[in-house]
Amino acid sequence: MRVFITGGTGLIGSAVVAELLSAGHSVTVLTRSDASAAKATAAGADTVRGSLVDLDLLRREAESADGVIHLAFGSDFSTPEALNQNIAEETAALTTLGDALIGTGKPLVTVSGTPQADGRPSTENDPLPTGGPVGGRGVTVNRILALAERGVRTSAIRLPRTVHNNGEGGFAGLLTQIARQTGVAGYPGDGSQRWPAVHALDAAVLFRLALENSPAGHAWHAVTDEGDTVLDIVTVIGRRLGLPVESVPVESFGPIGPVFAADQPASSARTRAELGWEPTRPSLLADLENVEP
Question: Which bin fits 249, alpha (ψ -120 to 50), beta or left (φ > 0)?
Answer without folding.
Answer: beta
